Amino acid sequence: VGHHISAGRDAIRDYEYDKAMESLNHALKLSGGDKDAALPLLNLLVETLGSFHEALNLESSLSLSCLRDERVRLLLGTAAVNLFEFDRAEKLLLGVENTSVAGLYVKMAYEMAEKGYEERAERYLRLARTLRGGGDLPDGEEVLRKINQLKAERLRPLEDELLKAHTLGNIDQAKAILQSLLAEFPTSIMGRLVRDEMLEQERHELRT
After folding, report:
1. Mind listing the pLDDT tens digit for each residue in 137-168?
2. Which of 16, 56, 81, 130 could be disulfide-bonded to 11 (CB atoms 3.0-4.6 Å)?
3. How far apart are CA 176 and CA 174, in angstroms?
4. Helix count (H) and strand count (E) of the chain?
5. Do 191 and 184 touch, CB atoms closer than 8 A?
6. Could you read off the pLDDT of 86-132 as tens digits, one per residue?
7. Neighbour count for residue 159 (Cβ, 10 Å)
């Protein structure tokens, strides 16, 4: 096994990637999925060649001890993120303590925000911030901007609906809309204004 691993590493150094994969794949099979053979092969596939499908296909052939290795899980998780297999990526990256994991979660958050999945984007961004200890995140502000844009797109129709019901005097309908609006968007200026007007109106009716 060691001979094939060494031959694979030498081939990588000489940019003979086909030869490297042949040697390392052979080593992986002979070792029963050991991490010493898996790591150079995964690194070649993920970091050098960008062969993400091929990298993920190796997961089933890796030993349990190999899959417990954080470096192996990070490489597999990176492949999964690049293939937009985010559920799989989350499982692989769980518990991996590496500075690059936060960046992967930011990338996942960005893609979810782009597709309009606001809640999932927020969750991934929170995970990224937790991993960075609340520090600055590369591209984090851009993701947050997209998330806020999604919120605004959902907020606007609700506010319009509330204003219409309130203006027309449909009190019960306005109250129902207001309750939903403020539950999800407690900082809505329109929601607060209408709420204050309705409360003032109720107080006026009680005095008369």
Report:
1. 667 778 888 888 888 888 888 889 999 998 89
2. 16
3. 5
4. 12, 0
5. no
6. 999 999 999 898 888 999 999 999 999 988 888 899 999 988 888 87
7. 18
- In this structure, are residues 104 and 78 in contact, taking their beta carbons and an 8 Å threshold? yes
Its pTM stands at 0.74
Rg (CA), the chain: 26
Q: Specify whether the CB–CB gap between 103 and 138 falls below 8 A.
A: yes
φ/ψ of 135, rounded to 5, equals: -75, 180
Q: Which of 85, 79, 70 is nearest to 44 (CA)?
A: 79
Q: Which of the 8 DSSP states describes residue 62?
A: S
For 35-101, where are the E strands, in sequence order? none
